[in-house]
UniProtKB/TrEMBL annotation:
Domain of life where this protein originates: Bacteria
Organism of provenance: Leucobacter weissii
Protein name in the entry: Chorismate mutase
Keyword Isomerase: yes
E.C. numbers: 5.4.99.5
Gene Ontology terms, MF aspect: chorismate mutase activity
GO terms for biological process, alphabetical: chorismate metabolic process; salicylic acid biosynthetic process
Keywords: Isomerase
Amino acid sequence: MAGDPPRIGTSVAEQTAQDRLEALRASIDNIDTALIHMLAERFRCTQEVGRLKAEYGMPASDPERETRQIARLRALAEDAHLDPEFAEKWFNFVVAEVIRHHRNIADGSTDGSDG
Ligand SMILES: C=C(O[C@@H]1C=C(C(=O)O)C=C[C@H]1O)C(=O)O
């Protein structure tokens, strides 16, 4: 842990590197926690969209909306110095799961996430 006395047989430089690694990993864990909560919230919204679409006979996917979202996310990624290709891949991965849920909901499955 940061601030611990150096361990026997460990140089000060190694101990500093270990402290920095652990501090960075603590931030990574916090970021992963936030991502999981944000993803859960996104899926909560998309499940509701799925129920709405099923009720009114709307198609599970909306390719035009996706095209607009991809353009927007790619621009945001560039501004944020994140690889736009990666941002698009992430989006397509999530949307494929959303559409699978929507199809399950339309087929009469309870929450759409299984099957
Ligand atoms: C959530 C929707 O359904 C699908 C999923 C989308 C998404 O996860 O962002 C976007 C478009 C649709 O293909 C929607 O139509 O808004």
